[in-house]
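Minutes, project check-in

Agenda point 3 was the complex the collaborators sent over. CS summarized: two entities, 228 residues total, and the question is how they sit relative to each other. Sequences were read into the notes so everyone works from the same version.
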Amino acid sequence: AQSVTQLGSHVSVSEGALVLLRCNYSSSVPPYLFWYVQYPNQGLQLLLKYTSAATLVKGINGFEAEFKKSETSFHLTKPSAHMSDAAEYFCAVRLGGYNKLIFGAGTRLAVHP
Amino acid sequence: DTAVSQTPKYLVTQMGNDKSIKCEQNLGHDTMYWYKQDSKKFLKIMFSYNNKELIINETVPNRFSPKSPDKAHLNLHINSLELGDSAVYFCASSHGLAGVTDTQYFGPGTRLTVL
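CS then shared the predicted structure for the full assembly.
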């Protein structure tokens, strides 16, 4: 069965530091993978997605993620954190032909001055 | 200009009541979804409709009944509300089902509190 695991429910970084949010997937077929961000009291916004084209995917707000099949990972990174990046981040894998998204448990990113 | 909108944004009600949440998308999409986000932020799909046809129906109590009057709307009706139904409910839509570009776009959520 397809699933995603997000390592670390809380990540705290200093403003200007590297952001690394980890996501590992389990899939018997080439996966479609997504990162969504949820700001407080808001809906989910797509950051980026992997659809079997380039393994390094660039998204909005300076985020990027690299698909590594050998490690079954799709970690999200940003070179320099900004205070406005504080939010909940969700990794998701698309299951089957019905566009069903399976979400990870989420990682809360805190950015401190 | 809101792409996916939900009403109401907040809903507070007593146990045993029946309530509905409405969702509308103006993106011209064919597929719509309902997700539930619990108090620990865990997101799980509940239902999906494609061209007004139910295509995903997860293990959800039959007190929950989705209705899609047209492709732009997907409403969620909940009968006999229970404390455990308290959650944030998100509507989403996508162009289709299986294409590379079938990204799901989410609404702002409806926070349901059952007292």
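Noted in discussion: Chain A has a mean pLDDT of 92.
Follow-up: revisit at the next meeting once the mutant set is ready.
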